[in-house]
Structures are given as structure tokens and as C-alpha cells.
Design goal:
It is a single chain. This protein has 15 helices and 20 strands. The strands form 5 sheets. Strands 14-15-16-13-12-17-18 form a 7-stranded mixed sheet, sandwiched between helices. Strands 9-8-7-10-11-19 form a 6-stranded mixed sheet, sandwiched between helices. The mean pLDDT is 97.
């Protein structure tokens, strides 16, 4: 598949109006692969946020009353349009956040698959009849929350449309989407395709903006629920703002996922899993950024991992041979290298691979190589903080109990990975891990669109995927009828 750069969409969608200017001003969007400005981003201010929420509120009265089958049909037309524009989404993913086209094909397809799954649930979620006395008819109604603020992170915006936005639409809610100003293009394309597919004006609004726009959105009295994907610090600020009005939240936050490799593991599968640190250049909440290896195979397996990572092709996202692109920004480079330098200086682990910004023909972009530390102290910053970059921390463990204790010794609880041919142990360890998702022997900790996905502890709460994704945006009302 040949993918070429495309013209990025910019602006805002408020109700039925596409706007090229807004009170928040503008921001230059820099291509992470080249370090050059590729677009001028329109930034929404509180005024545009208010108008978008009002537009969503105005559209909700009609959208919620659409027959569920009609809502499913229009959303399935949107999925068909997403599929038809797949190449454009892949190109925009490369341009807005540096995802290599080779990887972007899978990321975009994931968004389409999750969107399709959510659309098919639109006419299959209903209330139920409650057993009651002979003279009473008791039943429930599953009703949409109303207006949902969907605040997205920047590391996979094309997928986020299917994962975070489509379930709210399928449930009968209207949305105000605030994509990150670092990666707004995919959300704008999604919104345009939705309008062309027949989704009414006001049902989907897109307000590209910075922290000011986000603060105005979560504090708005017209918002009935907030769905946020991002980091802990921002989630804490959002939670504090929502607590004033008791606005319910769905939080999909970060991770520091442990990948546990026992001495009886299938080495080929375990190695492939360990290479997951390169996915999205390590900028993924679910990537296995901590590798726990049993003592008896530690040296041999670590040598295999570093050898494989040293061969990874890092380069231009539009080069079909690139499997790792740049990180999102110059500031991200500095932040990630700050972790690396502090780990070196504190001797938190032994640097085995990488550790410096890439130069040469890649020097204008924000490129880092796969970086590996061995014999890492599990109490160190390197092992405990979400670096959100291609940095792998490897640690030794002695036995099953030791591995589980190390894996759980973190504030995060999004995912875990287990490699062993002993299925009894696989089941025990999976149950003992304090996480929301577990991948065993190469199984993805993030399942398909029919499976629940979400974290525990500081990795958030609520679930995306399957029927549960729609239930996040539905309120249950009980109706009791006296038949006498």
C-alpha cells in the first residue's frame, strides 16, 4: 500500500459550522519527522466551547429519539466511509504524530474495527423486565447520558475515534470532542465523514484547543459526562473540576506494564512481546515497558532482546520500511532523555542500548532509538514512572511470588503480560496481577473491540470495548407500574 502525505484538515466544527478562526488564537503544528511547520491549528477558547456544548445540547433531544436501528445504520455508513478513507487516516496519523505508515495501517484498522463494533451495538442495548408482584409491572430503561465531553490524547487519534467517540454516539449521546492540539487532524476528518454519512449537525462537535479549552469543557454545566484519555496529572485536575458538579468520569490513563518471562517460556513469543516497547515509539499506555526475566535465563534472553532491538529500523514515517518513527515533539525528546540521564547518573540500571538522540539524516526530527537498561532497581524512577518513550527497563526475578510482587509494586494497573508454558501458573499469575488486562503467551493485553479494556489504581476506571463501552454512556431508569 502506497501512502503519501495529504493536506491536513484544520479548524473547528461547532454545530453545523466549520470555523477557521476562534478566540483561542492559533498554534503552529510541527511535523515530528522533520521539525518543520506543516499547518496552523485553530484553537478554541471558552466561547467556542460554550457554543459547541450548546449545539450538542440542542441536537440531543432529536438524536436520542432516533430509532436505534436508524442510528445503527447511519453509524455503519460512517464506518464504511472511514474504511474508504483509510489511506487518508494513515497519512494523517504519520503527519500529526509520526506513526510509521507500516504501523499506521494496523492502528487505523483498529479504529475502524472498534467503530464498527460500537455501531452494531446501537440497537442491541435495552432495558429489562424486573420480576415483581403479580399486580406490578417493573421495568428499566437504558437512557443516554446526554452531552459527553471526549478529551483525547495525541498518540493514536485515528483509533481513538472508534474506541472513545463511537460508543457514545451509538448510545444516543452527543459529543464535544477535544483532540490534542498536538494531533487534531484525524478527529476533524472523522467529523467531516460523520456529517457526510448523515449524522445530524450538533451530534458531533470538534473543538481543537489547549488546556484552556479543556478546562472550559470539563467545567461546563451542559456536560453530562466526561471521557478522558491521558496522563494522571491532567486526570486529577479534571476529576477535581468534575467533583464540583459531580459529573461522572471515564478515565483511561497511563501504565507501566510488566512483561513477565518465566524460564519455561516460548522464547519466540516472549521476544516478540518484549519488542512491544517500540510500538508508537514507546508512546502507548499499554506497551510492556518493564521486562521481568527469571534469573536462570536472564543473561541469554536479555542478549536476544537487545540484539533484536538494535536492528529496528527508525526513520521517516512515510518510508514503508520504518517500524519506528519520531516521538511527538522536541519537548518529549528532552523529557525522555531526562529519564535516561538520571538513570545513568543514579546507577538505577545498566545502559545496554541506545540512550542518545539520533542524528545524521534524522537530526531535524524528534528521533530516539530503542533504549534498554538492564538490572534495573524496581524502586527507581526508571521502573516506576511512565516515560512514554522507547525505554525498556529489565529486571530479574527468582520465582513466581517474586515476579508478582515486583509487577504489582507500582501505582499503575493497566496491563500485564505473562509468558510460561505452565498453564496453571499462567492462570495463577494472571489472577494475582493487579491490572485491568492481561496478555498470556503473546495474547494482546488489549483484546479486540468486543472485549473490555481499562485499568485499575492510577490507570483509571471504566471500560471501553464491547457492550460495556455503550453502558458507560447509558443511565438506567426504573419504572414501576401498579396494575390494580
Amino acid at each position: 500500500m502506497t501512502i503519501a502525505p495529504t493536506t491536513p484538515p484544520v479548524g473547528l466544527l461547532v454545530g453545523e459550522d466549520w470555523r477557521s478562526t476562534a478566540s483561542g488564537g492559533t498554534r503552529e503544528h510541527v511535523n515530528a519527522a522533520t521539525g518543520t511547520v506543516q499547518a496552523e491549528i485553530t484553537l478554541a477558547g471558552p466561547d467556542e466551547v460554550d457554543e459547541a456544548v450548546r449545539a450538542a445540547r440542542g441536537a440531543f433531544a432529536d438524536w436520542r429519539r432516533w430509532h436505534p436501528t436508524e442510528r445503527r445504520r447511519v453509524l455503519q455508513r460512517l464506518v464504511e466511509s472511514m474504511t474508504a478513507h483509510r489511506k487518508e487516516f494513515i497519512a494523517l496519523s504519520a503527519q500529526e504524530c509520526g506513526i510509521p505508515v507500516q504501523v499506521g495501517q494496523a492502528i487505523v484498522q483498529m479504529g475502524i474495527d472498534w467503530a464498527d463494533s460500537a455501531a452494531t451495538w446501537a440497537d442491541k442495548v435495552a432495558g429489562e423486565v424486573i420480576p415483581s408482584a403479580a399486580n406490578v409491572f417493573d421495568y428499566t430503561l437504558a437512557e443516554p447520558y446526554g452531552v459527553v465531553a471526549v478529551i483525547l490524547t495525541w498518540n493514536g487519534p485515528a483509533a481513538s475515534m472508534g474506541i472513545s467517540v463511537m460508543p457514545a454516539l451509538a448510545a444516543g449521546c452527543c459529543v464535544v470532542v477535544k483532540p490534542s492540539e498536538l494531533a487534531p487532524f484525524s478527529a476533524l476528518l472523522f467529523a467531516r465523514l460523520a456529517r457526510e454519512a448523515g449524522v445530524p449537525a450538533g451530534v458531533i462537535n470538534v473543538v481543537t484547543g489547549d488546556a484552556q479549552a479543556g478546562a472550559a469543557l470539563v467545567a461546563h454545566p451542559g456536560v453530562d459526562k466526561v471521557s478522558f484519555t491521558g496522563g494522571i496529572a491532567t486526570a486529577q485536575a479534571i476529576s477535581a473540576a468534575c467533583s464540583r458538579r459531580l459529573t461522572p468520569l471515564l478515565l483511561e490513563l497511563g501504565g507501566k506494564s510488566a512483561n513477565i518471562v518465566f524460564d519455561d517460556a516460548d522464547r519466540k513469543k516472549a521476544l516478540k512481546s518484549a519488542l512491544g516497547i517500540i510500538v508508537l515509539s514507546g508512546q502507548g499506555c499499554i506497551v510492556p515497558s518493564r521486562l521481568l526475566v527469571q534469573d536462570s535465563i536472564y543473561d541469554e534472553f536479555v542478549e536476544q532482546v537487545t540484539g533484536a532491538l538494535s536492528q529496528i529500523r527508525v526513520g521517516d514515517p512515510f518510508d514503508p520500511k520504518s517500524v519506528m518513527g519520531p516521538v511527538i515533539s522536541d519537548a518529549a525528546c528532552d523529557r525522555i532523555l531526562g529519564f535516561v540521564d538520571r538513570a545513568r547518573n543514579s546507577q538505577a540500571g545498566q545502559l545496554l542500548l541506545g540512550g542518545d538522540r539520533l542524528g545524521g539524516e534524522l537530526s531535524d526530527g524528534y528521533y530516539l532509538p530503542p533504549t534498554v537498561f538492564g538490572d534495573v532497581d524496581n524502586a527507581s524512577e526508571l521502573a516506576q514512572e511512565e516515560i512514554f518513550g522507547p525505554v525498556l527497563a529489565i529486571m530479574r526475578f527468582t520465582d513466581e511470588e517474586h515476579a508478582v510482587a515486583m509487577a504489582n509494586d507500582t501505582q499503575f494497573g493497566l496491563a500485564g503480560f505473562v509468558h510460561t508454558t505452565d498453564m496453571s501458573r499462567a492462570v495463577r499469575v494472571s489472577a494475582a496481577l493487579d491490572v485491568g488486562n492481561v496478555g498470556v503467551n503473546g495474547g494482546g493485553a488489549m483484546g479486540g473491540p468486543e472485549a473490555p479494556f481499562g485499568g485499575v489504581k492510577q490507570s483509571g476506571y471504566g471500560r471501553e470495548g464491547g457492550k460495556g463501552a455503550l453502558l458507560e454512556f447509558l443511565r438506567i431508569k426504573n419504572v414501576m407500574v401498579d396494575l390494580d
